[in-house]
Amino acid sequence: MAGRNPAIVVVGAGVAGLAAAKKLKEYGFNDVTVLEASERVGGRVATASLGNACVDTGAEYIHGASEENPVYCLLKKSGLLNQIPEMGEEAFYSNKGHKVDANFARYAYGAGESIIRYRGSNTGKSLGEHYAEKTQGMIDSLQEDNDKRTRMQSIFALVGKDMLIDVGASDLHRISLDSWQYYINMGDSLNIAGFMFQLVDKLLEDFPKDRLLLKREVSKIKWDGSFCVAPPHDELLLSAHTESPSEEKLCQYPVCIVCENGEEIVADHVIVTISLGCLKAHASSLFIPSLPTEKMEAIDKLCFGNIAKIFLEYEEAFWESDVGTISLIYEDDTPASVSTNKMQWLKNMQYFSVLRPKERLMLYQTTVTFSVIIIKNNK
Ligand SMILES: Cc1cc2nc3c(=O)[nH]c(=O)nc-3n(C[C@H](O)[C@H](O)[C@H](O)COP(=O)(O)OP(=O)(O)OC[C@H]3O[C@@H](n4cnc5c(N)ncnc54)[C@H](O)[C@@H]3O)c2cc1C
Q1: Does residue 1 lie in a domain region?
Q2: 178 and 204 assigned to the same domain
Q3: Which residue intervals define the domain Amine oxidase in the entry (predicted)?
Q4: Whose CA is nearest to atom 18 of ligand 1?
Q5: Domain termination site, one of 256, 273, 301
Q6: pLDDT value at position 376?
Q7: Low-confidence winner among 127-131, 216-220, 304-308 (lowest mean pLDDT)
Q8: Non-local CB neighbours of 256 within 8 Å, separated by 6+ positions
Q9: Going by C-beta distance under 8 Å and a sequence separation of 6 or more, which residues neighbour residue 162?
Q10: Secondary structure (3-state) at 276
Q11: 123 with 269, same domain?
Q12: What is the pLDDT of residue 261?
């Protein structure tokens, strides 16, 4: 490697890959190539047009919108955050169609959040168990009338269901309370619906387009070898002044990345940013030699949830003009009943946000399992 820039390949052009490439460029590494399997950049940050609105089909919230969060800082620096319109009012309705007093709903919601966001330790319990237990304790200690306690209980259930979407989990009972303490809360969540894709544009801003290679699905990463190739063209020109052509040496690289189309790219370093799901499916055949046992075990043991978005388009808005979000409170719901039981799919239609421009569009987020059931039921 002596005498030449280290060649670095980043696999995946989602925000992780693009951010790595941008940082490397900032630190002066000029030989950086990004390989992306699909025909577009951004990965799970994606955008689409719907009616006259631009919608985010992937991420749209900055979780932990504070100076500690690099996504927040980048978008703030670009002036984008000043363009975000106000979210609008929160409205709460019961499943029977009654409007629930927003002050009461917010008070109960806040109480539920303070329990669910508690960082526990060494209890051996799941977040779901802990939440059901603590909220029940709180309900029992309340002096309120029965009616109010029931409503409080159902708002606690709403908090639990919103939490599933917030952390992208499919079941509160599969989140370990002990691990939950390691979640770093950097601040409130900021919804930048319709604007998130600008993060991708910002990350790409100074990156040379010819070093971003789309439709390059990486199928093998040989990462512990010695691969000889002729030096890059620029270095050939440089050495022509100093050495005779016969002295031209082959360059050696420790990594060779093979794409599905047969293309091979050598490198000194490779940064793999593909998702945990892709790693679970392909890690055993992707890396040659195999990754160390502890890494393979981590890939195997880590789990992920899934969320889907359903965009609803109405002929005209049925909500009041100042409304930004609508939460549905199911009267017979309790924190203990928060589950991903398929029979409960209707109860998991609990949170809708009005999309900008606030004309006819609404977004409903749910787990993939429920979205499949909802689509089937509405065909
Ligand atoms: C519907 C939805 C809503 C979400 N909402 C939010 C939110 O509001 N806020 C938030 O913070 N997060 C949200 N997330 C999560 C967030 O989008 C992701 O955590 C983030 O975008 C992941 O970025 P990444 O670069 O790590 O991975 P990815 O975006 O998955 O990028 C990985 C890239 O690698 C490519 N790739 C895969 N295999 C190969 C291969 N073999 N060769 C080459 N390339 C390959 C993929 O095509 C992809 O482009 C949401 C996710 C979804 C799906």
Answers
A1: no
A2: no
A3: 15-330
A4: 44
A5: 301
A6: 61
A7: 304-308
A8: 220, 221, 222, 225, 227, 264, 265, 266, 267
A9: 327, 350, 351
A10: helix
A11: no
A12: 96
**What distance in Å separates the CA atoms of residue 17 and residue 23, rounded to the nearest whole number?**
10
Start-to-end CA distance of the chain, whole Å, equals: 60
**Any idea how long the chain is?**
379
CATH number for the domain harbouring residue 278 = 3.50.50.60
| DSSP code for 345 | G
Q: What is the Cα–Cα distance from 25 to 35, expressed in whole angstroms?
A: 16
pLDDT tens, residue by residue, 121-150: 667 888 999 999 999 998 888 877 888 888
CB atoms under 10 Å from CB of 146, counted, come to 7
Are 89 and 182 in the same domain? yes
Q: Which domain holds residue 241?
A: 8-65+73-79+197-301
Query: Of 239, 268, 301, which one is at a domain's C-terminal end?
Result: 301
Residues 6+ apart with CB under 8 A from 310: 363, 364, 365, 366, 371, 374, 375
If one counts the domains in the chain, the total is: 2
pLDDT digits (tens, 9 = 90+) for 41-69: 999 999 998 877 788 999 999 999 999 99
Q: Looking at the structure, do residues 201 and 185 belong to the same domain, yes or no?
A: no
Does the structure show a pLDDT above 90 at 259? yes
Is 359 annotated as ligand-binding?
A: no
Same domain, 292 and 318: no
Determine whether the annotation assigns residue 37 to a binding site: yes
Round to whole Å and give the CA distance between 40 and 158. Answer: 36
Helix, strand or coil, per DSSP, at residue 362: strand
Q: Is 280 in the pocket of ligand 1 (CB under 6 A)?
A: no
Query: How far does residue 306's CA lie from ligand 1's centre (Å)?
Result: 12
Number of Cβ within a 10 Å radius of residue 219? 15
Dihedral sign (CA 37, 40, 45, 51) = negative
Q: Is 218 annotated as a binding residue?
A: yes
Q: 181 and 132, same structural domain? A: yes
Indicate the burial class of 28 (C-beta count within 10 angstroms; 0-12, 13-18, 19 or more): exposed
Which of 196, 197, 260, 274 most suits a substitution to test ligand 1, by most atoms within 8 Å of the C-beta?
Answer: 274
